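Hey, resending since the last one bounced:
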Amino acid sequence: SVERAVLRDTLTGCVKMLVEAATLHDPRVGQIIDSIRVNVCLLAKGLHVEDWRFGLAGNLCLVGRMVMGMQKDFAAMGEADLTACAERGAAVIKMVPRLAPIAEIVRRQREPGPLPAGAEWPTADKIVVAARVVRFAVDFERALQSRGGNRSQAIEDLTASPVKYDATLIDVAKAVLASPPGASDAAPVARELPIANLCEGMTVQADVAALDGNLVFAKGQLLTGVAIDRARALMDIGVVSGTVRVLCPADAAARPAA
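The structure tokens again:
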């Protein structure tokens, strides 16, 4: 129905706004959020519990960093930081009534414990499952960074961790997270482009800072329209200039550079 489509688009807009705000607050976190979201969805699929709330919770699990004004590197966040981030983020997400289930997942994401028993989980149990999955995905991303991107070693680190993850979740992670997801058949192309020629979907290959030292783009960041518009606005007032090293998807690489 029209009403349902409007509601869906409104929720999508709210989520996109929160994610963009978190990325603008700290450009380094954009690529991390995207990676967590992808891995949450892979884990959920591996558990045969595909549910719209899982991906949204993965997208919004670090919104609390923005709310708290946190500048600490993601890899340096301790358990107290992550717990505070979860609680503050959930409080903001809860302000959108239709996102209340997502807020509950985000709030509970640092809870340890096994998955609920049973093959088919009711709604209440799916909240717990999603929280456990988000925790694993966040901790996997932290381990991945500390291991220089070695996915198998990151999984082994979590398996040997004093924090006991559900055995089923570990088995699923070994099956679905051991290899990078969704690699395209067409290899991306490295280019160096002026800010005016950047496009959504390109991946930044080196940090770009403004004249005052503030980060404009972070290495590994997937460019969005909002991030590009912000950079162009800074360029217009002379705060940032020069070119940006990016990896372009095959279709974007065919576009002219100037």
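The radius of gyration is 19 Å.

Sorry for the duplicate.
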